[in-house]
Amino acid sequence: YFIPSVNHRALGDAIWSLVAPSIQRSFWHEHSLYLGVAVLALSGFGLWRLWGSRDPRHRFLAVLLPAWALVGFLCSLAPSVEVLGLRLVMPSALLLRLFPWFRVYSRFGIVVAVAVVMLAGVGTAWLLRHVRRRDLVAALIAGVVVFEYLPTPHSVDLTAVPAVYRWIAQREEVLAIA
Question: With the CA atoms of 39, 41, 44 and 45 taken in that order, what torsion angle do they form, in degrees rounded to the nearest 10?
Fold first, then answer.
């Protein structure tokens, strides 16, 4: 969530050296859940503005959206994580037992992203309503966001069939896969 994709045009090589040991045998795109510094900053600002509002609907969103993001974050983690020597079981361990075909729990990152982007939208709207140089601030935000999400020159190689797909194909109990 906090490290750009390994295929970022400007930062990719530095990022690859940082994350390559943790990727192991999976695909790099399954590890690209980057939210972005600008989006995170704007969402923090949006959360602050919602929480500071006297409108109960805003206060409700100030609780709902971070909770939504937290649940998505916890579900997107590995089935267990080690923190300070303790092995903690995450919600994906239960989800893995209930839905073994779901395989890549980082897909819950979209839940996190939706909540964070909604908060960032609140922060952006408030900021642009209350600054003098709206055009300059909007251009600065857009520039940072564009840099953070620079299109990648690479594509995902889909010609190599992952072993898990061959394993699923051999299962008689699996009747259909969407």
Answer: -110
